[in-house]
Amino acid sequence: MSNGALLHIDSSILGGHSVSRQVTSAIVSRLTAADPSLKVVYRDLAANPLPHATPASMPADHPLSGGQGDAASQQALDDFLAADIVVIGAPMYNFSIPTQLRAWIDRILVPGKTFAYNADGTVAGLAAGKRVIVALARGGHYGNNAAAAAGEHAETYLRWVFGFIGITPEFIAADGIAAGQRDAALEGALKSAAALKAA
């Protein structure tokens, strides 16, 4: 038994109507069925949002906080650092991620904790070894050959952010939700979640 930790993050503002929430739930169900010893910590960023970043609202571990920091922000960082697996629901709003999710990311990108600069100016990701699985929900289609591909700033941003701290994230996408393909997109994403590699 692994006795690992799984951090489950939702950020959709749509509650029960949310596609990304249904997909993250399916992902977590798949992983916990495969490993019942996983300890799950859940955070709903829409119901309990972190404030936009200021020096006072950053984790105490962040250099900007001056060692004081915000308890909720520090808890968000600690939960991320303790997690072996992170499952994130990321709907695309106005071509990017929700502001609630961005505020959470501001808490986990902390110099000396999740990344560091080497003497030559290159970046060392300090969070390598974690598994990050993102459930994307997008209204249109944004593949490499799609006309709107240049407007996709959700998956591209998250790939860069997590790569910066040493993680290669996995993505399960439900596309075309606002283009009359919601049911098919959700069905496909749920199938991908059910077939997800457990370890």
UniProtKB/TrEMBL annotation:
Subunit structure: Homodimer.
Domain of life of the organism encoding this protein: Bacteria
Molecular function terms from GO: electron transfer activity; FMN binding; oxidoreductase activity, acting on NAD(P)H as acceptor; oxidoreductase activity, acting on NAD(P)H, quinone or similar compound as acceptor
Gene3D superfamilies: 3.40.50.360
UniProt catalytic activity: 2 a quinone + NADH + H(+) = 2 a 1,4-benzosemiquinone + NAD(+); N,N-dimethyl-1,4-phenylenediamine + anthranilate + 2 NAD(+) = 2-(4-dimethylaminophenyl)diazenylbenzoate + 2 NADH + 2 H(+)
InterPro entries, alphabetized: Flavodoxin_fold, Flavoprotein-like_sf, FMN-dep_NADH:Q_OxRdtase_AzoR1, NADH:quinone_OxRdtase_FMN_depd
Name of this chain's protein: FMN dependent NADH:quinone oxidoreductase
Similarity comment: family membership: Belongs to the azoreductase type 1 family.
Cofactor-binding details, from the entry: Binds 1 FMN per subunit.
E.C. no: 1.6.5.-, 1.7.1.17
Cofactors: FMN
Keywords: Flavoprotein, FMN, NAD, Oxidoreductase
Region (Disordered): 52-71
Function summary: Also exhibits azoreductase activity. Catalyzes the reductive cleavage of the azo bond in aromatic azo compounds to the corresponding amines. Quinone reductase that provides resistance to thiol-specific stress caused by electrophilic quinones.
Domain Flavodoxin-like fold, residue spans: 6-194
Sequence positions that bind FMN: 12, 18-20, 92-95
